[in-house]
Design a protein that fits this description.
Strand content: 5-15%
Order of helices and strands: EEEEHHEHHEH
Number of helices: 5
Shape: globular
Number of strands: 6
Radius of gyration: 16 Å
Helix content: 25-40%
Distance between the termini: 47 Å
Largest sheet: 4 strands, mixed
Length: 163
């Protein structure tokens, strides 16, 4: 049975979806391709209690790495790319090219790595926001580039904007 919960965060209400206590999706409001709660899903705030605690600690600056039961659906290649995202340290960034090189993916296939990063169903938990363009630009983020900037600023990878 698919279960879900919603929790508030500094980047908007997060939708957590899973099977049992295994998290299959974490999405942000307005995210492209995000799941929509269906009538046959059951709300279960307790099933994702640990995820909610870890996300709260992350946003409070007390957690830099998530340790959750994850079960996202994707191809073998996507799964490989998504696992590699977890190796990007808190407060750091990498480029699509560097990520591809780490995975042994030829330069000609960097777009495939980018597509897999873009298909990551576990935003924040699997930190695709830490992948940026080779020129330092904030390339697309399913949750919105402004949220990507907020997350990277929160982690100290970017300096806060004065204004």
């Amino acid at each position: 049975m698919t279960t879900y919960t919603k929790i508030d965060s500094p980047v908007g209400e997060l939708l957590l979806v899973g099977e049992g206590t295994a998290l299959t999706s974490l999405s942000l409001p307005g995210q492209r391709g995000a799941p929509v709660v269906r009538a046959d899903w059951r709300r279960d705030d307790e099933a994702f209690g640990e995820a909610a605690r870890q996300l709260s600690a992350y946003f409070a600056g007390r957690l830099t790495r998530f340790e959750l039961n994850l079960a996202p659906e994707g191809t073998e290649f996507q799964q490989r790319v998504w696992r590699a995202l977890e190796e990007i340290p808190f407060g750091a960034t990498t480029t699509y090219g560097e990520l591809a090189a780490r995975l042994g993916v030829p330069r000609a296939e960097i777009r495939a790595v980018g597509a897999a990063v873009g298909a990551n169903p576990l935003l924040i938990v699997r930190p695709c926001h830490r992948v940026i363009g080779a020129d330092g630009s904030m390339r697309g983020y399913a949750g919105g580039v402004e949220r990507k900037v907020r997350l990277l600023t929160h982690e100290g990878a970017l300096q806060p904007m004065l204004g």
